[in-house]
Amino acid sequence: MLKLEGIFKFYANNFIKTYVLRDVDLEVKEGEFVTIMGPSGAGKSTLLYILGMLESIDEGTYFYKEIPVHKFNEKKRTELHKNEIGFVFQQYHLIDELTVYENIEMPLLYQKIKTGERKSLVCDLLDRFNIVGKKDLFPNQLSGGQQQLVGIARAIVGTPSLLLADEPTGNLNSTQGNEIMELFKKLNQEGTTIVQVTHSAEKAAYSDRIINLLDGRVV
Predict the structure, then answer these.
(1) Order of strands, sheet of 193-197, starting from the edge strand that comes earlier in the sequence
(2) Of 24, 39, 43, 101, which cross-links 135 as Cys (Cβ 3.0–4.6 Å)?
(3) Average pLDDT in the 175-190 region?
(4) How far is CA 85 from the centre of its chain?
(5) For 40-77, what is each residue's pLDDT tens digit?
(6) Which CATH number is associated with domain 31-45+74-214?
(7) How many Cα atoms are found within 13 Å in the side-chain-facing hemisphere of 53?
(8) What is the pTM of this model?
């Protein structure tokens, strides 16, 4: 499903290149659950953003379902983000002007899901995550953990075929964190391909395979 070959990512400043990723080869098969681990600054989040087509690469090739990503125009990338890729961001990226309900509903509007089905899907997740009472609140009225739950609900509501998650349980208590990982495992068993970044060996144990990064390289 995902194949990276010889990926380099760097930032140039005054002709000095600072490498974030160096010569990364990575393959993720459809239906896999993969964890990326490594110390802070290893390039984990950058690699996840590249997989999600939110960051470009400086060298190398990236194939999404055997099609080179550099051949996708903006319209094609937007289409994939709407219909195939769910992203759980470490910093939530909720829309401040929308309520909890509206934030979760947004991917379904993009997918042109009918009103009745949208309501059913959103209400199911509000109930599952025990945030029904928060549905009319705005992100700045929520705790970090609650915002995290809303971000996860938004990422999975449209049943994406690929779910990318950056420290998805970072701001949750242990019980909530384990519930989210069980949910991810269930989604994976139902066919969703998942790539997560985590520092937690316990959360990584839910995946089929662990990729370790160090100084921008796979080790």
Answers:
(1) 85-88, 162-166, 193-197, 33-37, 209-214, 217-218
(2) 101
(3) 96
(4) 8
(5) 999 999 999 999 999 999 999 999 999 999 889 999 99
(6) 3.40.50.300
(7) 26
(8) 0.95
CA atoms within 13 A of residue 197's CA, in its CB half-sphere: 24
- Cβ atoms of residues 181 and 5 within 8 Å: no
Phi then psi dihedrals of residue 15, to 5 deg: 70, 5
- For 64-91, give the DSSP string: ETTEEGGG--HHHHHHHHHHTEEEE-TT
Provide DSSP, the chain: -EEEEEEEEEEEETTEEEEEEEEEEEEE-TT-EEEEE-STTSSHHHHHHHHTTSS--SEEEEEETTEEGGG--HHHHHHHHHHTEEEE-TT----TTS-HHHHHHHHHHHTT--HHHHHHHHHHHHHHTT-GGGTTS-GGGS-HHHHHHHHHHHHHTT--SEEEEESTTTTS-HHHHHHHHHHHHHHHHTT-EEEEE-S-HHHHTTSSEEEEEETTEE-
Answer for the pair 151, 93: CB distance below 8 angstroms, yes or no.
yes
Residue 168's closest CA among 85, 84, 89? Answer: 89
Domain ranges in the chain are: 31-45+74-214
